[in-house]
Sequence to fold (243 residues):
Amino acid sequence: MPRPIRASLAHLLTRPPARIWDAAFRAVPARWRPPQAGDKVHKLAALLGETERSVYLRLVSHWYRPEALVLGASEPRGALWNDTLRERFCEPVEYMQYLDTVTYLPDDILTKVDRASMAVSPEARVPLLDHRIVEFAWSLPLEMKIRRGRTKWILRRLLDRYVPRRLVERPKMGFGVPIDHWLRGPLREWAESLLAPRRLAEEGFFRPEPVREKWEQHLSGQRNWQYLLWNVLMFQAWQDRWL
Fold:
Protein backbone atom coordinates (compact mmCIF):
# COMPACT_ATOMS: atom_id res chain seq x y z
CA MET A 1 0.00 0.00 0.00
CA PRO A 2 1.53 3.39 -0.95
CA ARG A 3 2.74 5.41 2.00
CA PRO A 4 0.39 8.44 1.44
CA ILE A 5 -2.62 6.11 1.55
CA ARG A 6 -1.30 4.50 4.73
CA ALA A 7 -0.82 7.96 6.28
CA SER A 8 -4.41 8.94 5.41
CA LEU A 9 -5.73 5.70 6.85
CA ALA A 10 -3.72 6.26 10.03
CA HIS A 11 -5.26 9.72 10.38
CA LEU A 12 -8.78 8.29 10.04
CA LEU A 13 -8.11 5.53 12.59
CA THR A 14 -6.84 7.95 15.24
CA ARG A 15 -9.64 10.51 14.95
CA PRO A 16 -11.99 8.55 17.27
CA PRO A 17 -10.51 8.18 20.79
CA ALA A 18 -9.64 4.66 21.94
CA ARG A 19 -12.74 4.49 24.16
CA ILE A 20 -14.98 5.05 21.09
CA TRP A 21 -13.30 2.12 19.32
CA ASP A 22 -13.78 0.03 22.47
CA ALA A 23 -17.50 0.81 22.40
CA ALA A 24 -17.73 -0.06 18.69
CA PHE A 25 -15.97 -3.40 19.21
CA ARG A 26 -18.58 -4.44 21.77
CA ALA A 27 -20.73 -5.34 18.77
CA VAL A 28 -18.15 -8.00 17.82
CA PRO A 29 -18.67 -11.47 19.39
CA ALA A 30 -16.46 -11.93 22.46
CA ARG A 31 -14.40 -14.78 20.97
CA TRP A 32 -13.30 -12.54 18.08
CA ARG A 33 -13.00 -9.31 20.05
CA PRO A 34 -9.41 -8.32 20.86
CA PRO A 35 -8.74 -7.02 24.38
CA GLN A 36 -8.15 -3.26 24.58
CA ALA A 37 -9.34 -2.97 20.98
CA GLY A 38 -9.23 0.83 20.86
CA ASP A 39 -5.66 0.94 22.05
CA LYS A 40 -4.68 -1.64 19.42
CA VAL A 41 -6.34 0.40 16.65
CA HIS A 42 -4.29 3.45 17.67
CA LYS A 43 -1.11 1.36 17.79
CA LEU A 44 -1.84 0.03 14.31
CA ALA A 45 -2.30 3.60 13.07
CA ALA A 46 1.11 4.54 14.50
CA LEU A 47 2.73 1.71 12.50
CA LEU A 48 1.09 2.39 9.14
CA GLY A 49 3.44 5.12 8.00
CA GLU A 50 6.67 3.53 9.23
CA THR A 51 9.59 1.69 7.63
CA GLU A 52 10.45 -1.90 8.60
CA ARG A 53 13.04 -0.81 11.15
CA SER A 54 10.84 1.82 12.79
CA VAL A 55 7.91 -0.64 12.88
CA TYR A 56 10.08 -3.09 14.79
CA LEU A 57 11.37 -0.37 17.10
CA ARG A 58 7.82 0.77 17.89
CA LEU A 59 6.69 -2.81 18.55
CA VAL A 60 9.41 -3.49 21.12
CA SER A 61 9.61 -0.02 22.69
CA HIS A 62 7.62 1.53 25.50
CA TRP A 63 8.87 5.10 25.06
CA TYR A 64 9.56 5.26 21.33
CA ARG A 65 11.88 8.27 21.69
CA PRO A 66 13.50 7.95 25.13
CA GLU A 67 15.65 11.05 24.55
CA ALA A 68 12.42 13.09 24.53
CA LEU A 69 11.64 11.76 28.01
CA VAL A 70 14.98 11.57 29.84
CA LEU A 71 16.91 14.81 30.16
CA GLY A 72 20.35 14.70 28.56
CA ALA A 73 19.86 11.14 27.29
CA SER A 74 20.92 9.56 24.01
CA GLU A 75 19.87 6.04 23.05
CA PRO A 76 22.78 3.63 22.38
CA ARG A 77 22.96 2.64 18.71
CA GLY A 78 23.13 -1.12 18.20
CA ALA A 79 21.97 -3.66 15.60
CA LEU A 80 18.75 -1.75 14.93
CA TRP A 81 20.73 1.12 13.44
CA ASN A 82 23.07 -1.02 11.32
CA ASP A 83 21.77 -0.43 7.78
CA THR A 84 23.98 -3.12 6.25
CA LEU A 85 22.20 -5.86 8.25
CA ARG A 86 18.89 -5.37 6.45
CA GLU A 87 20.58 -6.10 3.12
CA ARG A 88 21.47 -9.63 4.26
CA PHE A 89 17.83 -10.72 4.58
CA CYS A 90 15.42 -11.31 1.71
CA GLU A 91 12.32 -11.12 3.88
CA PRO A 92 11.32 -8.40 6.39
CA VAL A 93 10.09 -11.14 8.75
CA GLU A 94 13.50 -12.82 8.86
CA TYR A 95 15.14 -9.44 9.47
CA MET A 96 12.84 -8.93 12.47
CA GLN A 97 13.54 -12.48 13.69
CA TYR A 98 17.23 -11.68 13.63
CA LEU A 99 16.67 -8.46 15.58
CA ASP A 100 14.67 -10.46 18.14
CA THR A 101 17.61 -12.86 18.47
CA VAL A 102 20.20 -10.18 19.17
CA THR A 103 18.11 -7.61 21.11
CA TYR A 104 14.66 -8.52 22.43
CA LEU A 105 15.55 -12.03 23.64
CA PRO A 106 18.80 -11.34 25.56
CA ASP A 107 17.94 -7.80 26.68
CA ASP A 108 14.31 -8.32 27.70
CA ILE A 109 12.56 -11.71 27.75
CA LEU A 110 15.47 -13.88 28.88
CA THR A 111 16.65 -11.27 31.38
CA LYS A 112 13.25 -11.25 33.08
CA VAL A 113 13.03 -15.05 33.12
CA ASP A 114 16.50 -15.28 34.64
CA ARG A 115 15.83 -12.70 37.36
CA ALA A 116 12.38 -14.05 38.24
CA SER A 117 13.59 -17.64 38.47
CA MET A 118 16.80 -16.86 40.36
CA ALA A 119 14.84 -14.76 42.86
CA VAL A 120 13.13 -17.96 44.07
CA SER A 121 16.11 -20.26 43.36
CA PRO A 122 15.10 -22.50 40.42
CA GLU A 123 17.33 -22.81 37.36
CA ALA A 124 15.19 -21.99 34.32
CA ARG A 125 15.89 -23.55 30.95
CA VAL A 126 14.55 -22.53 27.52
CA PRO A 127 14.61 -25.73 25.41
CA LEU A 128 13.46 -24.06 22.18
CA LEU A 129 16.62 -21.95 22.32
CA ASP A 130 18.95 -24.95 22.29
CA HIS A 131 21.54 -23.97 19.71
CA ARG A 132 20.79 -26.99 17.52
CA ILE A 133 17.08 -26.11 17.35
CA VAL A 134 17.89 -22.47 16.61
CA GLU A 135 20.26 -23.47 13.81
CA PHE A 136 17.66 -25.85 12.38
CA ALA A 137 14.95 -23.17 12.54
CA TRP A 138 17.13 -20.68 10.67
CA SER A 139 17.72 -23.26 7.94
CA LEU A 140 13.99 -23.61 7.23
CA PRO A 141 12.26 -21.62 4.49
CA LEU A 142 9.85 -18.96 5.72
CA GLU A 143 6.75 -20.87 4.53
CA MET A 144 7.57 -23.57 7.10
CA LYS A 145 7.24 -20.94 9.83
CA ILE A 146 4.36 -18.77 8.60
CA ARG A 147 1.71 -20.13 6.25
CA ARG A 148 -1.59 -18.50 5.27
CA GLY A 149 -1.26 -16.06 8.15
CA ARG A 150 -0.62 -18.78 10.75
CA THR A 151 2.58 -18.45 12.74
CA LYS A 152 4.71 -21.32 14.13
CA TRP A 153 3.36 -23.54 11.36
CA ILE A 154 5.84 -26.42 11.66
CA LEU A 155 5.62 -26.40 15.46
CA ARG A 156 1.81 -26.63 15.29
CA ARG A 157 2.03 -29.58 12.88
CA LEU A 158 4.44 -31.32 15.25
CA LEU A 159 2.05 -30.79 18.17
CA ASP A 160 -0.75 -32.33 16.10
CA ARG A 161 0.95 -35.70 16.66
CA TYR A 162 0.68 -35.47 20.43
CA VAL A 163 -1.88 -32.85 21.49
CA PRO A 164 -5.55 -32.40 20.45
CA ARG A 165 -5.82 -29.51 18.02
CA ARG A 166 -8.47 -27.76 20.13
CA LEU A 167 -5.77 -27.17 22.76
CA VAL A 168 -3.35 -25.71 20.23
CA GLU A 169 -5.55 -23.61 17.95
CA ARG A 170 -6.62 -21.13 20.60
CA PRO A 171 -6.05 -17.40 21.08
CA LYS A 172 -2.90 -16.47 22.95
CA MET A 173 -3.65 -15.83 26.62
CA GLY A 174 -1.27 -13.62 28.56
CA PHE A 175 -1.07 -13.16 32.30
CA GLY A 176 -0.70 -9.39 32.61
CA VAL A 177 -1.94 -7.54 35.65
CA PRO A 178 -4.52 -4.70 35.31
CA ILE A 179 -2.11 -1.82 35.79
CA ASP A 180 -4.30 0.45 33.67
CA HIS A 181 -7.25 0.07 36.08
CA TRP A 182 -5.04 0.34 39.17
CA LEU A 183 -3.62 3.65 37.99
CA ARG A 184 -7.12 5.04 37.47
CA GLY A 185 -8.31 3.58 40.78
CA PRO A 186 -6.50 2.50 43.96
CA LEU A 187 -3.02 3.64 42.84
CA ARG A 188 -4.10 6.99 41.41
CA GLU A 189 -3.15 9.12 44.42
CA TRP A 190 0.22 7.34 44.78
CA ALA A 191 0.97 7.81 41.08
CA GLU A 192 -0.10 11.45 41.11
CA SER A 193 2.34 12.23 43.91
CA LEU A 194 5.23 10.61 42.02
CA LEU A 195 4.34 12.28 38.71
CA ALA A 196 3.70 15.78 40.06
CA PRO A 197 5.10 18.34 37.55
CA ARG A 198 7.00 20.31 40.19
CA ARG A 199 8.62 17.17 41.57
CA LEU A 200 9.68 15.96 38.13
CA ALA A 201 11.15 19.37 37.27
CA GLU A 202 13.08 19.65 40.53
CA GLU A 203 14.53 16.13 40.35
CA GLY A 204 15.83 16.77 36.85
CA PHE A 205 15.64 13.26 35.39
CA PHE A 206 12.44 13.42 33.29
CA ARG A 207 10.85 16.10 31.18
CA PRO A 208 7.52 16.78 32.93
CA GLU A 209 5.59 17.58 29.71
CA PRO A 210 5.54 14.14 28.01
CA VAL A 211 4.97 12.38 31.34
CA ARG A 212 2.02 14.59 32.24
CA GLU A 213 0.57 14.32 28.74
CA LYS A 214 0.54 10.50 28.94
CA TRP A 215 -0.80 10.58 32.51
CA GLU A 216 -3.72 12.86 31.63
CA GLN A 217 -4.58 10.86 28.51
CA HIS A 218 -4.52 7.68 30.58
CA LEU A 219 -6.79 9.09 33.29
CA SER A 220 -9.30 10.34 30.73
CA GLY A 221 -9.44 6.94 29.00
CA GLN A 222 -8.20 8.45 25.75
CA ARG A 223 -5.32 5.94 25.61
CA ASN A 224 -3.94 3.14 27.75
CA TRP A 225 -0.38 4.22 28.62
CA GLN A 226 0.05 1.78 31.52
CA TYR A 227 3.49 0.45 30.60
CA LEU A 228 5.05 3.81 29.72
CA LEU A 229 3.80 5.31 32.98
CA TRP A 230 4.83 2.23 34.97
CA ASN A 231 8.43 2.62 33.76
CA VAL A 232 8.54 6.17 35.13
CA LEU A 233 6.69 5.25 38.32
CA MET A 234 9.13 2.44 39.14
CA PHE A 235 12.07 4.81 38.80
CA GLN A 236 10.29 7.37 40.95
CA ALA A 237 9.42 4.76 43.59
CA TRP A 238 13.04 3.54 43.58
CA GLN A 239 14.18 7.11 44.20
CA ASP A 240 11.74 7.40 47.10
CA ARG A 241 13.15 4.30 48.71
CA TRP A 242 16.89 4.61 48.11
CA LEU A 243 17.70 8.27 47.47
Observations:
- The CA atoms of residues 11 and 63 lie 21 Å apart.
- The chain has four domains: 1-49, 69-139, 141-170, 179-242.
